[in-house]
């Protein structure tokens, strides 16, 4: 069977990734398993490393990179969204507040599902809304478990600190009071994919008058439970 797509550089990059599927490889190992010229194998492996599709192990050998796990998690998004509706509706009913599900996309986070409070004062975040990663409890959750270098970059200009994110990791949930928008409080918890990586954040949000200045005391457990149900749904589907 001809595995050529007609786009030479992509075919060669695919060869490199396929070669790493069986485990770590030195440059010599890549050359042997792909049949590529040594300079070509090196150039492609380093380029793929730049895009985080390839990484290095402790011995400096090439291995598959973290970006592939992220893409695999995104491929499970339909499963996540299929489970999100009932979970968010239940969370809204238990807390009496609007519930949202956020995913990270680059330097932003996107509301991919929501269940609105049915009446009274509410914090409405329409599905499809793009919000910054610099403020809000959902941003804290999506940032807290990042790789150190990405975490450091993300904290530049953020309304929260490394110390705050350390507390988030310890507790397993985040809260914000007027951080993203004056007068609005929120509580969030992480949804994890089959590889245990944080792939989304479940949140409830509403006015500080109702959620108080300690919203986690009121709603952290309900949000954690909702996140756990979505995590379980992703693991069942794997």
From TrEMBL:
Protein's UniProt keywords contain NADP: no
InterPro entries in alphabetical order: GAF-like_dom_sf, HTH_MetabolicPath_Reg, Tscrpt_reg_IclR_C, Tscrpt_reg_IclR_N, WH-like_DNA-bd_sf, WH_DNA-bd_sf
Signal peptide: none
Organism: Streptomyces meridianus
Keyword Transcription regulation: yes
PROSITE patterns cross-referenced by the UniProt entry: HTH_ICLR, ICLR_ED
UniProt-recorded name of the protein: IclR family transcriptional regulator NdgR
Entry keywords, A to Z: DNA-binding, Transcription, Transcription regulation
Segments forming domain HTH iclR-type: 7-66
Domain IclR-ED per the UniProt entry, residue ranges: 67-236
